Amino acid sequence: MGTQLSFTAPRRVGLEEYPDPPLQPGEVRVRTLYSGISAGTELTQYRGTNPYLEKRWDPVRRLFVPDRAGLEYPLRGIGYEQVGRVVEVGSKVRRLEVGQVVWGSWGHRSSVILSEEVAASRALGPSSGLWAQGTESWNPLLGIFARIGAIALNMVHGAEIRLGDTVVVFGLGVVGIITAQLARLNGAEVLAVDGVQKRLELAEKLGTPTIDFRQGSPAEAIKALTQNRGADVTLEVTGSYAALHEAIRATAYNSRVVVGGFFQGEGAGLRLGEEFHHNRVQLVCSQTSGVHPALDHRWDRLRLEQTVMRLAIEGRLELMALVSHVFPAPEAARAYELLDQRPAEAVQVVLDFQEIA
Predict the structure, then answer these.
(1) Other CB atoms closer than 10 Å to residue 84's CB: what's the count?
(2) Which of 116, 155, 158, 203 is the most exposed place for a label (fewest CB within 10 A)?
(3) Starting at the edge strand that comes first in sequence, how are the strands of the sheet with 166-170 ordered?
(4) Residue 210 and residue 309 share a domain
């Protein structure tokens, strides 16, 4: 039997067993090492604010319909930042062996069965195609950042950043800090905005100048730094309507705001009759279920994930510094309580599944 996390009710975390089925010839069994918590999507499920808990998503019309809820408690299959080790291979598997490390999105659970194709395309370690020559030491924990890093890279693609652009990132959670690094790799002059001291210091340590919104209007500061022009591109990853409004204010005339935050409820604090309207600001959504339309014939989620892992392995993208807390998986309730009640203390929170057999 395996063990998985569930939300039994808003702000209630449980652990439950699930059957561990036998392996088929073309499959591998992966035992989870670490599982990262998303402070955006997962907290909406933990708190009970996720729109799927009130409405049903109609995939044909691509509409939320208020006739019934699409999800109900208990919620299972939570989480999408996992890394594990292959512990068993099927008789027909040729590209993987026991002991290899694999990343993926299988939820907060102690094990998963993957096809050889899926697992081989997400393998980490010297035998993988992603490895940089001369890489001597690495931490399997790196694998939890594949999916969350892909979200950041997807935003940067959607921003269409050009060499020399002034890019401003609103929000220095995990996605924001990764986004700022990727924007710099694109040749941008990057600034980042937040009001949490721990996150501001971490971003500065990783090379991104910051603006503390507690000290005054970020938009006015950004205008002053750009000869009143504003940001060429603004990337919003806060999920706050007030922050989105300020991001719009900070953006140059006829320029773009890429919106990656997962907003909840109605848009209090967002005033679209002001700078958005008068400055012809473009709002572009970036969401993990798709890629930038101009790239969808070449890029997909797997390529985004592989690119993030390659950049990290090559030392061009710093990810491990974002890990602020590691909790044993049986103490998951404490991890969620931290993110819910004291978010300023945390960046990337991780569950360690190695103690669960």
Answers:
(1) 29
(2) 116
(3) 210-212, 189-194, 166-170, 231-236, 251-259, 282-285
(4) no
